[in-house]
Amino acid sequence: MRHRVIMVLAIVTVLLGGVMLVPAAYARLSGGDAIAGLGGIGGGDKVPAPEPTAPAKPTLAAAPVSVNFTGEFFSWALMDRKTGEISGAKNMTETNSTESMIKAWIVSDYLRQLGNKPLTTQRKQQVVTAIRDSNDVAAEALYNAGGRRPVLERLIKMCKLTDTTIEPTRAKWAYTKMSPRDAVRMGDCIGDGTAAGKKWTKFVLSEMTKVRGGVEDQKSTTVQGGRWGIIDGLPDSITSQQPVSIKNGFTMLWADVQWHVNCLAITDDWTLTVMMRYPQKAGLEYGAKVCASVATQLVTPQPGAALKVPQQPLGKL
User: Which of 96, 98, 103, 205 is the most exposed place for a label (fewest CB within 10 A)?
Assistant: First the structure.
């Protein structure tokens, strides 16, 4: 009898406990603190709305490029300086004569070798005018000071160029053959301090932001307008956030009656080059617009329609 009483009491206790636990468990699932744990379903605390995503910073990135170009050669390349990845035209390994674009290396090479020695007034003037005015006489003086051909040999070795060749007879710097792929490597080499060294890199990049003169200012070997091209194709959202260092190369060569035009731009994030050859009658402005058009089309996110290069009656090549 006693055992039966004990068993009945145990059963009653279990049943009462279950009745008390069920409302408590239900409360946890249908209200109170448990609501937050279930994402706010049914009431209680609400899940905060996600923070708005900041808009992407405008930059240049790989993208299709379509240019209304008529001429013998056109190519371009873009390097992402954060990753080292190079994108560009299918023919970005083909070459063009560098013309004055290579002056950025000639100046950098001279200053790196100068090291901590003082820069004389005469040499500083040559450095400044070689970059800002694309002064051929100044660039030639610095090229001679660097040993001529060894200047270009150091360029190929230090910047790890693979498509570049030196003019064989007198190693004329303007006739160095370089591909767009190698040109952006050269730009990165200047930007990362390899070319000019720790002391002089900021100085060189700063001088390259001060290039002056327009297309119409190309008057002689000492005064040549070089502020056009890529810089004209970039929106304020890019040029206002970081300096853009540029160096263009441009010559109408009578040997082939072609304009040889190259545009180079360097920022902390990327380096871009556009290279081309086209008939004399088109004029330098044509090449300047092509460089600007490529830059505009690579802007991401796109602020608007890309700059179009007008067709010009160049005739048959």
Answer: 205
Structure tokens at 317: 């090549």
pLDDT tens by residue, the chain, 317 residues: 445 444 544 444 444 444 444 434 333 333 433 333 333 334 455 556 666 565 678 999 999 999 989 999 999 999 999 999 999 999 999 999 999 999 999 999 999 999 999 999 999 999 999 999 999 999 999 999 999 999 999 999 999 999 999 999 999 999 999 999 999 999 999 999 999 999 999 999 999 999 999 888 776 666 677 999 999 999 999 999 999 999 999 999 999 999 999 999 999 999 999 999 999 999 999 999 999 999 999 999 987 544 444 444 443 33
59 and 82 Cβ atoms separated by less than 8 Å: no
Retrieve residue 150's tokens: 């060894």
- Residue reference for tokens 């610095």: 142
Output the CA–CA distances (angstroms, integers) from residue 246 to 80, 114, 267, 273, 277, in the order listed: 16, 23, 9, 10, 19
3-state helix/strand/coil string of 12-35: HHHHHHHHHHHHHHHHHHHCCCHH
- pTM (2 decimals)? 0.80
